[in-house]
Design goal:
It is globular and about 60 Å long. The protein has 14 helices and no strands. 76% of the residues lie in helices and 0% in strands. Helix 3 packs antiparallel against helix 4, helix 4 runs antiparallel to helix 14 and helix 6 runs parallel beside helix 9. It starts with a helix and ends with a helix. By secondary structure, it is an all-alpha fold. It folds into 2 domains: 216 residues, no CATH class; 59 residues, no CATH class.
Length: 291
């Protein structure tokens, strides 16, 4: 990489990060007077609680993005960098999707058993429960895009990934303005915000990343006639490597039940560390030299 290209990427990344910070200020400061023009203080407080809960959902990543970045950087010095990266992305994508699927089910069930409006004290706010669920699930399903963002960062395209996220944030803020002016409903604003986040994540993961790194999405999958099918099936069907178990690893209660046969040392480890350990075990099979 030339010095000019390196400087251009550094400046692009810095500019995108600055715009991201500015958009965050717009969401949390500039839009507040607009919301107060159409909402009461109680509805605004409810929206701020929902927004904070949506930001909290992002911790479901549990350090998987940093694990992916470290592996991507390690692959750059290997002989077969693109092939190993492709197999690792394929395995990690299943981890992320399994995590999102399994966390969506208890989120929906918990919202029915313990309504968020009762827990947060917003019983008088209309559609608070629906808006809370929409934002929480939308942010949860935007987490898998962290895999693509980690690959962008490891390959020197961090500014491009942040730029896509900024575009999604700006689109969401425009949608919030349109929703509050036309409908004035908390649910409409929540849908506009969550839809923009999901669309931005889907574009980054399914469209832009495939265009920028086409080799990543061409990882060879064994077919039934392939001699490696048996070993591939054993790896995928192992009880500790099935997608539901990957997702359950984020839940402390599920891990307490599943790790009983393993021993007290494993059970005493913090659950984010367990999730990273399981991800390393799963993805090592797909990135090893013998795959």
């Amino acid at each position: 990489m030339s010095e000019t290209s390196r400087r251009r990427r550094l400046f692009g990344g810095w500019s995108a990060s600055f715009i991201q910070m500015a958009l965050g200020l717009v969401q949390q400061v500039v839009l507040i007077p607009v919301f107060l023009r159409y909402w009461t203080g109680d509805i605004l407080a409810a929206w701020l609680a929902i927004y904070a809960a949506g930001m909290l959902v992002l911790v479901a990543d549990a350090g998987l993005q940093f694990l992916a970045i470290n592996r991507f950087l390690g692959f750059k010095s290997s002989v077969d960098c693109d092939r190993r990266t492709a197999r690792f992305c394929s395995a990690m994508l299943r981890v992320y999707v399994g995590l999102a699927v399994v966390l969506t089910v208890p989120l929906l069930a918990g919202s029915l058993l313990l309504p968020p409006s009762v827990m947060f004290g917003f019983q008088t706010v209309v559609h608070f429960d629906a808006a809370f669920v929409v934002v929480a699930i939308g942010m949860l399903w935007s987490v898998p895009s962290n895999l693509a963002a980690g690959l962008y960062r490891a390959r020197g395209y961090n500014g491009r990934a942040v730029g896509v996220q900024n575009a999604a944030t700006a689109l969401g803020q425009l949608g919030q303005l349109i929703a509050i002016v036309t409908a004035g409903s908390l649910l409409a604003v929540a849908i506009a915000y969550a839809a923009a986040q999901v669309l931005g994540a889907a574009y980054l993961l399914l469209i832009d990343a495939r265009r920028l790194f086409p080799f990543v999405w061409r990882a060879r999958r064994p077919c039934p006639g392939d001699g490696s099918w048996v070993s591939f099936g054993k790896r995928c069907l192992s009880p500790w490597r099935a997608p539901p178990i990957w997702g359950c690893s984020i839940c402390r209660s599920c891990w307490s039940a599943c790790s009983c046969p393993i021993g007290p040392r494993w059970r005493s480890a913090p659950h984010p560390r367990r999730l990273r350990t399981v991800a390393r075990i799963v993805c090592a099979d797909h990135t090893s030299a013998g795959c």
